[in-house]
Design brief:
The protein is an alpha/beta fold and 347 residues long. The protein has eight helices and 17 strands. The strands form three sheets. A nine-stranded mixed beta sheet has the order 2-1-17-16-14-3-12-13-15, with helices on one face.
Length: 347
């Protein structure tokens, strides 16, 4: 299977640069099993789920991972993008421009935070740095870091108003476990009110945690799908969620995943252990057609980039022809695409 089979043309003006005025007001394309399409809004999700459905969400929390600093020696501007926390205040990072740094380079971010470049890593442009700060790193980042918006959100200038908007809206209302460098964007449409309405209808809700990493931003550079390798992402399934899913499966209920990260968490555990159980592990699972799902029945997801692994995943669930047709419909109906855009419910 070729990556080019998952390509499509998207008008640039349909790439959402800011979130909808209200989370629940986003458009929602409902894709049925036979490929039929309905055009709704996200608040209509309450009409589509009931006591035979179990909703599973990724409660990871995005950290302000983008740091802007200056080389101590020359004052040159340096951007550090935090990727993964290691031991002893060390982090895997991306550095831009990387040609300006070497081992031992000192970078000042603020009075509260600085970094020393330790060494380049073999893993595709990453570096290891030592951070210097006092107290809790996430508390420090909340003061000096910036929301790591995806590269297709292009703003000539980020005002303080927009910065506050991103801090509030590039995060799900149920976010809990800090560490991700990108939001599980399908969850951005949920409000506390909608979750309460779903519970009142008998929908059971559970949470998993997958720390979203660099793979979210990285394009597929090979033409043969089989040649692509996924970045490793850590995940955790708590005991209560495992029990919820297993009981639901035994009763013939449907598992509704919110976002591709939730899909990859549950399907990774199923593939590794042959069951859903309390576990902490890591996933490099690449889902593309054809794929036999062991856990997931339905999916709430945003619209994904052309030729991306996420587009391949949803195609594996709903069928490539159905998905590509749905994307054409969404474009024709002026849906907003990507992280801050509208969503799809694969029912």
């Amino acid at each position: 299977m070729l990556v080019s089979e998952f390509d499509y043309e998207l008008p640039e003006e349909l790439i959402a640069q800011t979130p909808a005025q209200k989370r629940e007001m986003s458009k929602m394309l409902v894709l049925g099993k036979n490929g039929n399409i309905e055009h709704k809004h996200f608040f209509d999700i309450v009409d589509y789920l009931g006591d035979n459905d179990v909703l599973i969400l990724n409660n990871t929390k995005v950290i302000p991972a983008r740091l802007y600093g200056h080389k101590e020696e020359t004052g040159a501007k340096i951007e550090i993008f935090l990727l993964k926390q290691k031991e002893n205040k060390q982090w895997e990072v991306l550095i831009k421009p990387s040609k300006r740094v070497k081992e031992g380079t000192a970078v000042n971010v603020s009075d509260e935070l600085s970094a020393t470049v330790l060494k380049p890593l073999e893993d595709d442009g990453k570096w290891l740095v030592q951070l210097h700060y006092e107290g809790d790193i996430y508390g420090v980042l909340s003061q000096v870091g910036n929301v790591p918006l995806p590269p297709y959100i292009e703003r000539k200038m980020t005002s303080e108003e927009l910065k506050k908007l991103d801090y509030d809206r590039y995060q799900t209302v149920y976010a809990k476990h800090e560490g991700s460098v990108a939001a599980p964007t399908a969850g951005l449409h949920f409000t506390t009110e909608i979750m309460n309405k779903l519970k009142a209808k008998g929908v059971q809700i559970g949470f998993v945690n997958l720390t979203v990493g660099l793979g979210t931003f990285r394009p597929v550079k090979c033409e043969n799908v089989l040649d692509h390798k996924m970045d490793s992402e850590e995940y955790h399934i708590p005991k209560e969620t495992a029990e919820l899913i297993n009981n639901a499966k035994a009763q013939g209920k449907k598992i509704v995943a919110v976002g591709t990260t939730t899909v990859r968490t549950l399907e990774s555990a199923w593939k590794e252990f042959g069951e859903i159980k309390e576990c902490t592990s890591s996933s490099t699972l690449f889902i593309y057609p054809p794929y036999k799902f062991g856990v997931i029945d339905k999916l709430i997801t945003n619209f994904h980039l052309p030729k991306s692994t996420l587009l391949m995943l949803v195609s594996a669930l709903a069928g490539k022809e159905n998905i590509m047709n749905a994307y054409k419909e969404a474009i024709a109906n002026r849906y907003r695409f990507y992280s801050y855009g509208d969503c799809m419910f694969i029912s």
